[in-house]
Amino acid sequence: MKGPYRFSVAENQFYVLGDGDPGHLKNRTITAAGNNGLAAGGMDHAVAIAGISAGTAVISFDLSLSRLDPDESQPWEDVVEFGYTSTTGTAHLSACMRPDEETDDMEVYEVGLAFAGPSDYRMRLHARGRGINPDGVQEESEPIAEHYLLQVWPATA
Questions:
Q1: How many helices, marked H, and strands, marked E, lie in the chain?
Q2: 10: how many CB neighbours lie within 10 A of its CB?
Q3: CA–CA separation, 3 vs 134, rounded Å?
Q4: What is the dihedral of CA 38, 4, 91, 154, to 10 degrees?
Q5: Residue 75, Cβ neighbours under 10 Å: how many?
Q6: Which of 9, 60, 126, 128 lies 20 to 30 angstroms, CA to CA, from 73?
Q7: d(CA 131, CA 121)
Q8: pLDDT digits (tens, 9 = 90+) for 66-109
Q9: At a CB cut-off of 8 Å and minimum separation 6, what does 16 contact?
């Protein structure tokens, strides 16, 4: 298990991306994620829908070479499993607006999620707290409401 890490949410979304800019992906998977209410993936990209429109949330990662069971250690409100294809062997958490490079929060964006190289992966995103401040802004002075766990394993496992 890696984390928990603080990360930035903008425009009610955050991403898993291979190399490149998230700007061209905003609508690519948002419809699919909207259909299940949480997340969807594709080739070198995945999108998750946050409750807050902007601010800080918390995420942990569980990376495994074998299939993972859904996490039952927390009271997760939403859980969605989806496919992700890495063509480059690179996949990282990303947001529309990343934190300042001088902050301590950059480590979350450096966790390698395509740890088995270019391949098909299964991802399962667990979420809680998305209904606490829907479409609001997570203020720095308030306790962080939204928590996520992203499980990742090779699809062949």
A1: 1, 9
A2: 16
A3: 24
A4: -80
A5: 7
A6: 9
A7: 29
A8: 999 999 999 999 999 999 999 999 999 987 665 555 455 678 88
A9: 41, 45, 46, 48, 84, 91, 92, 93, 94, 113, 123, 150
